[in-house]
Automatic annotation (TrEMBL):
Residues 242-262 are annotated as: Disordered. It is found in: Cell membrane. This is Gastrin/cholecystokinin type B receptor. It comes from the Eukaryota. The lineage of its organism: Eukaryota, Metazoa, Chordata, Craniata, Vertebrata. Residues 253-262 have a biased composition (Basic and acidic residues). GO terms for cellular component: plasma membrane. It comes from Myripristis murdjan (pinecone soldierfish).
Amino acid sequence: MRILLYSLIFSLSVFGNLLIIVVLTVNKRMRTVTNTFLLSLAVSDLMMAVFCMPFTLIPSILKDFIFGAAMCKIVAYLMGISVSISTFSLVAIAIERYSAICNPLKSRVWQTRSHAYRVIAATWVLAFIIMIPYPVISHLESYQRPDNTTAHQCRHKWPRAKAEQTWYILLLLVLFVIPGAVMIVAYGLISRELYRGIQFEMGQKKDSTGVKNGLTSTVSSGSDDGDGCYVHMVPRPNSMEMSTLATSSGAPKAERPRTNTSEAKLEAKKRVIRMLVVIVVLFFLCWMPLYCANTWRAFDDISAMHALSGAPISFIHLLSYTSACVNPIIYCFMNTRFRKALLATFSCCAAPCRRRRLGLRDNEEDVMATGASMSKFSYTTVSTMGTC
């Protein structure tokens, strides 16, 4: 069962992240701010799949680390780096989305690809620096099996127990508690802003009879594709006269399309909120067992080894590695624009004209929760509800 599950997650992770890397690299129109962070996330998840999963499963099954002392240090170092970069990328994406949705005008000033490159470079350098202790403390140890044969295991040898406890508490805070809190706050504020939009839409639907009589009016953008991420403009009193004239002259023709568009936007916003909840839940579901197990082993190694050795710790590691498989699905493959770019990339050789038909529009709006960069959008309305 372990071999089957590890092989399945490994294949999906490698295949999915390689597709993301190819699509985002080949298609110039996909090189947005958020997609730049997604590219870094895909590279780190690919590293996690390649350097973590085989070197966790094989020694667990064979009860022997067969890769040598050098690989013991290298694998431990790359494991920590890949996990750190993946977590930092998720936090960067959450902050970028918060700024783009809740402060769209201010975010345009600094949300550029050059800024994204600097942030990504900083996260990689930080990950390489933070994980320096791993190659230092990782050692290949020999032990006798019950059948009197010699086996090896890659273990962490700390100079003092306090140092080990401090290290795992630090990892718990830097790679789990703080990133989880940032994601909860960022996506919570985004959800609140989208919920305000839902409430606004519901209020507009209830006041539709007032719109017909010229009592209220709204300004709607004709370029919205119902992605649930647009920004409303609450009408001002001095604009009521022009809006009344517009509704009196063209309301009968536009009433049904506007109603359909409004309902589509409401459903899109609800989907976005559900998607944000799924992102946060999956982050905690994938990583909480591993960090809890590591902290437990740091403070009570004997009882932790007795309870978690063998299959339990293997499945805990597998659960954390599942994030490398889930991230491509959540952030990219559920994105309509990414799917179009994927089809265009792999159908260009067989059908060049098909790629032109599936070419991406420069102003196409995507679902925010699946990786579209809001800083690339053309906002035609400004929110007067305030910032998050």
